[in-house]
Specification:
This protein has 158 residues and is of the alpha+beta class. The protein has a single domain, classed as endopeptidase domain like (from Nostoc punctiforme) (endopeptidase fold (from Nostoc punctiforme)), CATH 3.90.1720. 30% of the residues lie in helices and 23% in strands. It has helices at residues 3-14, 22-32, 51-63, 71-75, 132-137, and strands at 43-44, 48-49, 78-81, 91-94, 103-109, 112-116, 124-128, 138-144. Strands 3-8-4-5-6-7 form a six-stranded antiparallel β-sheet. Strands 1-2 form a two-stranded antiparallel ribbon. A hairpin with an 8-residue loop joins β4 and β5 (103-109). α1 packs antiparallel against α2 and α2 (22-32) packs across α3 (51-63). The radius of gyration is 14 Å and the shape is globular. Residues 5-20 and 150-158 have low confidence and may be disordered.
Length: 158
């Protein structure tokens, strides 16, 4: 059995059914993709995934939602959250290319998030928000709300 699938099964079995939420479905499926190779522009696990392709694929498969294709556009499709409000399935955004909201991942809980990092670091992986690299680049977080009107990323700065 693929290690990522085993990890997903372990996560699923640890979650009590009474607390099942869409965010848990998102998180479980996202973790099952750990180890999928990175591919710039990729939006399917069979060919590889980039960060926004990964997030879009997960939300489409688990919730049937079609998210915008790039991370900056995704940042306008969410309800902004303070870091302490994060719940599994929320999106976390980073400035990794000297450009706001240039990277996106899915929050798992316990200060962890899953994301398609880069070909250099191995593709889809789990990282910690508290790691120095990610802490210094954190741009904000948000919850996907399907009927939310699109807003500008500047709303986070107000």
């Amino acid at each position: 059995m693929k290690p990522a699938m085993l990890l997903a099964l372990l996560v699923a079995s640890a979650l009590p059914p009474a607390h099942a939420t869409p965010g848990n479905d998102v998180s479980i499926y996202a973790v099952s993709l750990v180890g999928t190779p990175y591919r710039l522009g990729g939006n399917a696990p069979q060919q590889g995934l980039d960060c926004s392709g990964f997030v879009g694929h997960v939300f489409h498969q688990t919730l049937g939602l079609q998210l915008p294709r790039d991370s900056q556009a995704m940042s306008r499709f969410v309800r902004p959250l303070a870091r302490e409000e994060l719940q599994p399935g929320d999106l976390v955004f980073f400035n990794t290319l000297n450009r706001a909201y240039s990277h996106v991942g899915i929050y798992l809980g316990d200060d962890r998030f899953v994301h398609a990092s880069s070909s250099r670091s191995g593709g889809v992986m789990v990282s910690r928000l508290g790691d120095a690299y990610w802490r210094a680049r954190f741009d904000g977080a948000g919850r996907v709300v399907p009927d939310l009107p699109v807003q500008t990323a500047d709303a986070w700065l107000e």
